[in-house]
Amino acid sequence: MAKIQMKTPLVEMDGDEMTRVIWKLIKEKLILPFVDLKTEYYDLGLEYRNETNDQVTIDSAIATKKYGVAVKCATITPNAARMEEYNLKEMWKSPNATIRAMLDGTVFRAPIMVKGLVPYIPSWKKPITIARHAYGDIYKNAELRVPQGSRAEMVVTAPDGTETRTTVFDFKDSAGIVQGIHNVDSSIESFARACLSYGLDTHQDVWFATKDTISKTYDHHFKDIFAEIYEKEYADKFKAAGIEYFYTLIDDAVARVIRSEGGYIWACKNYDGDVMSDMVATAYGSLAMMTSVLVSPDGVYEYEAAHGTVQRHYYKYLKGEPTSTNSVATIFAWSGALRKRGELDKLPELVRFANLMEKATIDTIEDGVMTGDLYVSSQLENKVKVGTAEFLTVVANKLAVLL
């Protein structure tokens, strides 16, 4: 068959360790035989980020704004051990955090459900999509160690120079720590609109939760902005669509989520979304079975896998030992980006390819061929564990038949 032609490039952000190995295999086995792939390539591997003083991350985000669609491989966010291992100039920031801040987007994460993988929560019959605000809170914090006898204050200086002060804590009896976090109305408003629009697009209820009973200014402000935007811009649309916007406290939301059957969008502040997305992914079966897309207010999309770089498997791979690494979330990052590129460029054949790429992947698992993590969890009777590359070969063969 003739290769599917693309009009506009994707922004391709390569990554680290085992996911970098998988990235190359997915392109070679699943995409390049069928698509005349056009990408603008950026190497976000830790070595090159260090070489460019992380400028490559900024450049990739600028390119994403230009082209509208990006696909990103998992990357290392360095800690002290990584500083030594990679001989880094400094402890570079999370590439995800940098890109999210520059795009001012909302991260939507949803589980990939397949036959044989039963969620740990028996009532969950449909996917739960976590919408994570991707700006501010502790990810843009300021923090200090405080010696005993000190007093910590928060000061806001108005444009005319007047100051408003409040005491955070008097550390007269003990040393301690202090942290300042912030958010901005424009980002919260973008978050609210992204969540409510995504609910309309996917025909799902939207839940939002904070701790406004304790945080009567910070969290309550999130609640007020969501409520105002919903009433002014979305209430009639939601009613016409037969879906609901629902607000509750975060602890009540957790209890409701556990008792629910799924099938809705759960909007969370930045830290809540970071934690709850991993909880939901694990409860559905695997972090490697979780899609993730960053959506900006101006319609820019960045797709990635929700998991990390699979360091343990990478060290085995370097030793020449066999690996059985789950590539599903990375496959779905590519398919999501290709589908969106096809939608934006009005290329139905590219959209169809992306859909069949996902179908071939799911069919492979439901036919009993899977990587080690799924083999342990799957309740299918006739199943076989295969290696990293072998799994992708089986998917590629199914994809060729479907096409």
UniProtKB/TrEMBL annotation:
<keyword id="KW-0521">NADP</keyword>
<keyword id="KW-0560">Oxidoreductase</keyword>
<protein>
    <recommendedName>
        <fullName>Isocitrate dehydrogenase [NADP]</fullName>
        <ecNumber>1.1.1.42</ecNumber>
    </recommendedName>
</protein>
<keyword id="KW-0479">Metal-binding</keyword>
<keyword id="KW-0816">Tricarboxylic acid cycle</keyword>
<comment type="similarity">
    <text>Belongs to the isocitrate and isopropylmalate dehydrogenases family.</text>
</comment>
<dbReference type="GO" id="GO:0004450">
    <property type="term" value="F:isocitrate dehydrogenase (NADP+) activity"/>
</dbReference>
<dbReference type="GO" id="GO:0006102">
    <property type="term" value="P:isocitrate metabolic process"/>
</dbReference>
<feature type="binding site">
    <location>
        <position position="109"/>
    </location>
    <ligand>
        <name>D-threo-isocitrate</name>
    </ligand>
</feature>
<feature type="binding site">
    <location>
        <position position="274"/>
    </location>
    <ligand>
        <name>Mn(2+)</name>
    </ligand>
</feature>
<feature type="binding site">
    <location>
        <position position="77"/>
    </location>
    <ligand>
        <name>D-threo-isocitrate</name>
    </ligand>
</feature>
<feature type="site" description="Critical for catalysis">
    <location>
        <position position="139"/>
    </location>
</feature>
<dbReference type="InterPro" id="IPR024084">
    <property type="entry name" value="IsoPropMal-DH-like_dom"/>
</dbReference>
<dbReference type="GO" id="GO:0000287">
    <property type="term" value="F:magnesium ion binding"/>
</dbReference>
<dbReference type="Pfam" id="PF00180">
    <property type="entry name" value="Iso_dh"/>
</dbReference>
<dbReference type="GO" id="GO:0006099">
    <property type="term" value="P:tricarboxylic acid cycle"/>
</dbReference>
<dbReference type="InterPro" id="IPR019818">
    <property type="entry name" value="IsoCit/isopropylmalate_DH_CS"/>
</dbReference>
<feature type="domain" description="Isopropylmalate dehydrogenase-like">
    <location>
        <begin position="9"/>
        <end position="395"/>
    </location>
</feature>
<dbReference type="InterPro" id="IPR004790">
    <property type="entry name" value="Isocitrate_DH_NADP"/>
</dbReference>
<keyword id="KW-0464">Manganese</keyword>
<feature type="binding site">
    <location>
        <position position="251"/>
    </location>
    <ligand>
        <name>Mn(2+)</name>
    </ligand>
</feature>
<dbReference type="GO" id="GO:0051287">
    <property type="term" value="F:NAD binding"/>
</dbReference>
<feature type="site" description="Critical for catalysis">
    <location>
        <position position="211"/>
    </location>
</feature>
<feature type="binding site">
    <location>
        <begin position="94"/>
        <end position="100"/>
    </location>
    <ligand>
        <name>D-threo-isocitrate</name>
    </ligand>
</feature>
<feature type="binding site">
    <location>
        <position position="132"/>
    </location>
    <ligand>
        <name>D-threo-isocitrate</name>
    </ligand>
</feature>
<keyword id="KW-0460">Magnesium</keyword>
